[in-house]
Amino acid sequence: NERLTVQSEKLKIAGELAAGMAHEIRNPMTVISGFTQMMVKDTQSPYHAYATIINDEINRIDLIIEEFLILSKPHLMIKEPFALEAIVEEVCALMQESFLQQHVQSHITYEPNCPKIIGNKNQLKQVFVNIIKNAMEAMEQQVHKQLNITIKETAKREIAVIIEDNGEGISPDILAHIYEPFFTTKVSGTGLGMIISNKIMREHHGYITIDTTVNKGTTITLTFPIL
Ligand code: ADP
Ligand code: MG
């Protein structure tokens, strides 16, 4: 038991060090990014194409750091009661533009006056964005892209947000790894979306379930206790 305490203390310190380092990396990155953007704007430069690549890669490092910080930060959790459907609607409104661009048909269903849950809105928005982005990325190859979101009360005083895509699905050997940090099957994925979402769901006493069939699609259910 004592050994476990030492172990988790060590992990905590390692996490804090890594988070500190991530912050420190951001400062020189900002300087590099500033000059690179100047080079990107100079279309006459023989290095213009390289500058664009450097810029894309800087943005990628930035995304990894941002997601990593979300994961390691012992964020203070301000929780308040709210309606899940309001947050889901908000996230979908934010993503409307990318639905249009990528020809994704989206459909949201819920009963009026769903019971409220208690939680941190910003963190839960992050979870919905992560899951919906994954759904969209999984449908990239489909001709008809259908994203269905249903919010409903379960029989066990819980409320479920069900996010269904008709994308490529997840094979069992991949499914076994999707909560591992940095595990990704995408060329430019960070592999942090699922682990972040899982962490936030646990902090809300909720859980994630996945139902998937290769070449048919994936249904991700986020279940929350009702307050
Ligand atoms: P990333 O999206 O950066 O790859 P995530 O942690 O969000 O990282 O997801 C990890 C992996 O889980 C993805 O690379 C993908 O293989 C798989 N995955 C997650 N959601 C879906 C989905 N809806 N359909 C198919 N595969 C998925
Ligand atoms: Mg993702």
Characterization of this structure:
By secondary structure, the chain is an alpha+beta fold. 51% of the residues lie in helices and 20% in strands. The chain contains 6 helices and 7 strands, in the order ααβαββαββααββ. It has a 5-stranded mixed sheet with strand order 2-4-5-7-6, covered by helices on one side. The chain has a two-stranded antiparallel ribbon with strand order 1-3. A hairpin with a 3-residue loop joins β6 and β7 (217-225). The two termini are 34 Å apart. The structure holds adenosine-5'-diphosphate and magnesium ion (MG). The site of magnesium ion has 4 residues, from α4. Its EC number is 2.7.13.3. It catalyses: ATP + protein L-histidine = ADP + protein N-phospho-L-histidine. GO terms for molecular function: ATP binding; phosphorelay sensor kinase activity.
Overall mean pLDDT: 91
Structural class: alpha+beta
Order of SSEs: HHEHEEHEEHHEE
Poorly predicted parts: none
What form results from the Cα inertia axes?
A: globular
Strand content: 15-25%
Bound molecules: adenosine-5'-diphosphate, magnesium ion
Span from first to last CA?
34 Å
* Rounded Rg: 20 Å
**Level of helix content?**
40-55%
Number-wise, the strands total 7
Count of helical stretches: 6
